[in-house]
């Protein structure tokens, strides 16, 4: 499935717990990401649904806000773009839509723009308003 048009300015990684502060060059992978072989990412429109589906029972989430163009350029968590084996964003069909997956790279201080703490008030759909 093709990438959304227009492409998002930001992608988000949902975390159920606060990441280390300051962010390291390489954040540890979640069990799901390690098992699937890529890092699961969401657009601003997808975050509330993903949060409700997978994190519905928690009252706080942390979101890594990542500029799409930084990931699309192959920027790894340490901020470097490798000439070989560079990280790649692929848009792939998943049951309820087309999601961004990061292959061959890590998230960290070199490609995460900011960390956003979100508190649930009602559902995540009611609680989140993120920048596209």
List its traits.
27% strand; DUF952; 6 strands; 3-stranded antiparallel β-sheet; DUF952 domain-containing protein; alpha+beta
Biggest sheet strand order reads 1-3-6
CATH class: Alpha Beta
Q: What order do the helices and strands follow?
A: EHEHEHEEEH
Count of individual helical segments:
4
Radius of gyration: 14 Å
Global geometry: globular
So, the CATH homologous superfamily?
Answer: Protein of unknown function DUF952
Q: Which runs of at least 5 residues are low in confidence (pLDDT < 50)?
A: none
| Biggest sheet details | 3 strands, antiparallel
Domains, number: 1
Which fold name fills CATH's third level, the topology? Answer: ADP-ribosylation fold
Q: Which CATH architecture is right? A: Alpha-Beta Barrel
First-residue to last-residue Cα separation:
20 Å
Structural class: alpha+beta
Number of beta-strand segments? 6
Strand content: 25-35%
- Proportion of helical residues: 10-25%
Mean pLDDT score: 92
Give a short synopsis of this structure.
With 132 residues, the chain is an alpha+beta fold.
Task: Describe the 3D structure.
The chain has helices at about 30-35, 45-55, 70, 125; strands at about 10-15, 40, 60-65, 90-95, 95-105, 115-120. It is built from four helices and six strands; from the N terminus they run βαβαβαβββα. It is an alpha+beta fold and about 130 residues long. The mean pLDDT is about 90. A hairpin with a 2-residue loop joins β4 and β5. The longest helix is centred in the middle third of the chain and has 9 residues, at about 45-55. The protein has one domain (about 10-120): Alpha-Beta Barrel (ADP-ribosylation fold), CATH 3.20.170.20. Helices cover about 20% and strands about 25% of the residues. A three-stranded antiparallel β-sheet has the order 1-3-6.
């Amino acid at each position: 499935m093709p990438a959304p048009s227009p492409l998002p300015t930001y992608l988000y990684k949902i975390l159920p717990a606060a990441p280390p502060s300051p962010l390291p060059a390489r954040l540890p992978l979640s069990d799901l990401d390690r098992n699937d072989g890529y890092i699961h990412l969401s657009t601003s429109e997808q975050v509330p649904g993903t949060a409700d589906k997978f994190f519905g029972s928690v009252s706080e989430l942390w979101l890594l806000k990542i500029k799409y163009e930084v990931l699309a350029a192959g920027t790894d968590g340490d901020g470097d773009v490798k000439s070989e084996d560079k990280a790649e964003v692929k848009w792939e069909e998943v049951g309820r839509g087309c999601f961004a997956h990061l292959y061959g790279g890590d998230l960290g201080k070199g490609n995460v723009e900011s960390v956003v703490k979100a508190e649930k008030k009602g559902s995540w759909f009611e609680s989140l308003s993120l920048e596209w």
